[in-house]
Structures are given as structure tokens and as C-alpha cells.
Amino acid sequence: MPALAPAQVEEAVLAQPPVRRADLLAAEVPVALVFNGIGHAVMMATPLDLEDFALGFALSEGLLDEAAQCYGIDVHAIDGAQAGLPPGTDAAEVRLEIATGCFERLKQRRRSLAGRTGCGVCGVESLAALDLATPARPPRDWAAAIDLPVVLRAFDQLAPRQLLNAQAGTLHAAAWARLDGEVTDVLEDVGRHNALDKLLGRLARQRRLAEPGFVLLSSRGSHELVRKCARLGLAAMATISAPTALAVRLAEQSGMQLWGMCRAPRGVRYTPR
Question: Which residue among the candidates 70, 119, 122, 262 is catalytic per the annotation?
Fold first, then answer.
């Protein structure tokens, strides 16, 4: 299933005649996440790195406590017409086999997460069901090495490595950087939450969640992004735009270092070291 789709567009420039040309658009397809044969969520996502996405989602949403509780992941293309979708609509189903205890916990959750690409709490039925828990983590001595030069060095590398966004212009990126600012992984998706889940899943599958480093995001710093990182014990996150007040509060509670407005030569650290 391609991550980009061809299109014919008409490009207009003031004081010049319109020009018809070929273009590429980011694919955005329904991705059903199925745990032990039971559908749990349908997300609108770019159909790339879906194994990473599914595992990252399961971990960052607390469905799994560790990657070892996932025994297998299979991705299947779905005929949109047979699934009742409009003609020409692609779809995918990601099937995960998870530990029995995790599956029982999942079934007890009365929460629909269908289509969550925006505020991060769609489908929550009451204030009591709103999960804003961010467990406090012990400080990491190495996190003090994440200063402004390191953060900006990492962001300098991000845009050139957003290969899909360079072609389509509508994708977010989540990246992992080492303490020297060297970017090692870049995952892209139309949704910023999805891009982060893909990155978290990639790190989890490679058993790298505990390695020194930090997350970069080509977005604002929403509370949901902070919560996902905090839940997996990550020490620092940096975003290209500003965070929300709730995101800062959650980062402080978890002990996470949070950077925002990272546009050279400037950057803002919103939490203490």
C-alpha cells in the first residue's frame, strides 16, 4: 500500500495563467488495530511502518506494559469496498497477538479510540475516564547533556530526512536523537500522534527505549505527546512549536525535560533540568 498517491492538480500563481501538473499527496487510510481477534481502534494513518505503529500505540496507550507482551504482529491490506468504504478507499488491518493478562485488561476498558488524530481524548465518555496519568521517573544524569546546541543540531537534520514530507508537504515527523544531537531514526505520518507511536514502536522493537537520547517532533507539544513519552519512560522531548500549559504540567510531573519553539537560533526549555 503506497504512502503517497499521484494526483493531477492546477497550480495558480498571481498574474500568471494556471498550470496543470502532476503532484503527490500523502495517503491517509483507515488502519484497524485488532488484538487477539478483537477490534480495538481504527486510526487514520499513513500506511507505512504499521508494525511499529501498532506496537507503539499499544505501549503508549497502556495496553501493554512491555514489548515482550506482544507475541506477533501481522499487517493485512483490506479491500475497502468489501469493508463498506467508499470506492477507491484503501484500508489496512494490523493484527496483534498479546499476553492474556493484557487482553483481559483491554476488554475491560470502556473507551473508544476510533479516529483519534486530533485532541487525543475523542471517545472518552466522562471526565473520570480521562487518563492524564504520567508516572514520575527517576532523574537521569545524562539528560543534562541535552542543551540548546544539541537540540538545534538535531532539528537541523530533521527536515532533510523527512523524505515523504518533501514530496507531499503534509506529514509530521517523529525522530530519535542521541546526546550529541545526531538523529538516528525518522518516522513520518499524517498524524503527529501516529508518527510518535511509530517511533516508539521502532525503539521498542529494537530494545532501545532505555538508551540515552531524546524525541524530536515537527509539531506543537500537546499533552498527549508528553503522556505517551512519559508512559514509556523517555527523558526528554523537543518540538518545533510551543507546548500547551497542560503538556508542561505533565512533563514536570513525570520529570521529563521539555523543549519547544526550537527554531534556530532559539529554543525554549519549559521544565527544569
Answer: 119
